[in-house]
Amino acid sequence: MNLFTSVHDVTDIKQLVADALALKANPYAHNTLGKNKTLGLVFMNPSLRTRLSTQKAAMNLGMNVMVMNMDKDGWALETQDGVVMNGNTTEHIREAAAVMGQYCDILGLRSFPKLKDREEDYSEGFFNKFVQFCGVPVISLESATRHPLQSLADLITIVETNPVPIEQRAQGKKPKVVLAWAPHVKPLPQAVPNSFAEWMCKAQELHMIEFVIAQPEGFELADEFTKGAEIVHNLDHAITDADYVYVKNWSSYKEYGQILPYEGNWMMNNEKLGLTNNAKVMHCLPVRRDLELAAEILDGPNSLVIQEAGNRLWSAQAVLKALLENH
Amino acid sequence: MNLFTSVHDVTDIKQLVADALALKANPYAHNTLGKNKTLGLVFMNPSLRTRLSTQKAAMNLGMNVMVMNMDKDGWALETQDGVVMNGNTTEHIREAAAVMGQYCDILGLRSFPKLKDREEDYSEGFFNKFVQFCGVPVISLESATRHPLQSLADLITIVETNPVPIEQRAQGKKPKVVLAWAPHVKPLPQAVPNSFAEWMCKAQELHMIEFVIAQPEGFELADEFTKGAEIVHNLDHAITDADYVYVKNWSSYKEYGQILPYEGNWMMNNEKLGLTNNAKVMHCLPVRRDLELAAEILDGPNSLVIQEAGNRLWSAQAVLKALLENH
Amino acid sequence: MNLFTSVHDVTDIKQLVADALALKANPYAHNTLGKNKTLGLVFMNPSLRTRLSTQKAAMNLGMNVMVMNMDKDGWALETQDGVVMNGNTTEHIREAAAVMGQYCDILGLRSFPKLKDREEDYSEGFFNKFVQFCGVPVISLESATRHPLQSLADLITIVETNPVPIEQRAQGKKPKVVLAWAPHVKPLPQAVPNSFAEWMCKAQELHMIEFVIAQPEGFELADEFTKGAEIVHNLDHAITDADYVYVKNWSSYKEYGQILPYEGNWMMNNEKLGLTNNAKVMHCLPVRRDLELAAEILDGPNSLVIQEAGNRLWSAQAVLKALLENH
Question: Fewer CB within 10 A of the terminal residue: chain C, N end or C end?
Answer without folding.
Answer: C
